[in-house]
Amino acid sequence: MKKHNFSAGPSILPQEVLQQAANAVIDYNNEGLSLIEISHRSKAFVDIMENARALVLELLGLEGKGYKALFLQGGASLQFLMTAMNLLEKKAGYVNTGAWSGKAIKEAQKIGDIIEVASSGDANFNYIPKGFEVPSDLDYLHLTSNNTIFGTQIKSFPTTSVPLVCDMSSDIFSRVLDFTQFDLIYAGAQKNMGPAGTTLVVVKEELLGKVTRTLPTILDYQKHIGAGSMLNTPPVFAVYTSMLTLEWLKKEGGIAAIEKENEKKATLMYSEIDLNPLFKGFAATEDRSPMNATFNLVNENLKETFDTMLKEAGISGVNGHRSVGGYRASMYNALPIASVQALVEVMSELENKA
Ligand SMILES: *Cc1c(COP(=O)(O)O)cnc(C)c1O
């Protein structure tokens, strides 16, 4: 029986996407060859790559607006470094909202001067800093839109004249935003887009080519753009499966439609956390993420009982990150609301039992 998959990443994909991807691994388009044993220069794969790149811009509303989409490797973690190498000349600003922002800061510090514009480290990152000043002399401001580990999300982005760089690994394609406010967006595929192995980068082309340092070829966005996102052999399976997920999303009605579903799931989840006296939420209410809900048991003695009940209900992947403890329910686009209902039922059953 298929489990209710709340894994934070790699994470749930639509069932029909898994089926299509599985078929393609055995025999792509009934041509007698597996997708993963043909040339990435074949027409079949070049079409997949181009379709995936076009779907990204279409779904984000960025077509014809000077942006390019790239499917790279090295994870969002390589983007911590690559964004700085390509964009940081004098000074960049970072908003520190948790573990991933912290890692982005550490990598960028190896490249140049950075300042921490704001941080929520004073409260173990359970909120999003607001109302901070953004200096106007920055090469860019780096943000993390959704903090996967802590379960917080930026709801309103700073208005500033400096370019915005945003790590959207765990909430890309989940909510309607004016994506033209960002100059560079990156996201590891494995949270809301596809399997692990590829990282999406969406960059405004005019931002590039301004730094004086010599860039290694493989770390140069312009070289990747010039090569059609095929500077070296791309991760064909990850790109194909991401393309299938993007097609699925388009068929479901795009970001606006999925956002409504995500809101329903989040409302159901957070109402239970708020109303059930056995649980308390971790993140500040106004900053809660619809993607990752973090919560704890008020009485840790109930942990064993609760964990057993979760297991019996086929609920998987709800353990919290070690830096927060407790539980984390990741409710990415592909998670059906029925899974959230199943989790909420177990929580209320526990209340009836206790
Ligand atoms: C998971 C995650 C990362 C790291 O992604 P990798 O692809 O494993 O490098 C970075 N940022 C955020 C917000 C994440 O959720």
The CATH topology of the largest domain, please?
Answer: Aspartate Aminotransferase, domain 2
Task: Trace the largest sheet across and list its strands.
Answer: 2-10-9-8-5-3-4
Order of helices and strands: EHHEHEHEEEEEEEHHHEEHEEH
CATH architectural grouping of the largest domain: 3-Layer(aba) Sandwich
Helix content: 25-40%
First and last CA, distance: 29 Å
Shape descriptor: globular
**Molecules bound to protein:** pyridoxal-5'-phosphate
Count of individual domains: 2
Domain Aminotransferase class V: 5-343
Catalytic activity: 4-(phosphooxy)-L-threonine + 2-oxoglutarate = (R)-3-hydroxy-2-oxo-4-phosphooxybutanoate + L-glutamate; O-phospho-L-serine + 2-oxoglutarate = 3-phosphooxypyruvate + L-glutamate
Protein name: Phosphoserine aminotransferase
Family: Belongs to the class-V pyridoxal-phosphate-dependent aminotransferase family. SerC subfamily.
Textual characterization of the structure:
Catalyzes the reversible conversion of 3-phosphohydroxypyruvate to phosphoserine and of 3-hydroxy-2-oxo-4-phosphonooxybutanoate to phosphohydroxythreonine. It is found in: Cytoplasm. Belongs to the class-V pyridoxal-phosphate-dependent aminotransferase family. SerC subfamily. This protein has 354 residues and is of the alpha/beta class. The protein has 2 domains: 15-251, 3-Layer(aba) Sandwich (Aspartate Aminotransferase, domain 2); 254-353, Aspartate Aminotransferase, domain 1 (Alpha-Beta Complex). Helices cover 35% and strands 17% of the residues. The chain contains 9 helices and 14 strands. It has a 7-stranded mixed β-sheet with strand order 2-10-9-8-5-3-4, sandwiched between helices. Helix 4 (99-109) links the parallel strand 3 and strand 4 (113-119). Helix 3 packs across helix 4. The chain is globular and about 65 Å long. The two termini are 29 Å apart. The mean pLDDT is 97. The protein binds pyridoxal-5'-phosphate. Pyridoxal-5'-phosphate (PLP) binds next to helix 3.
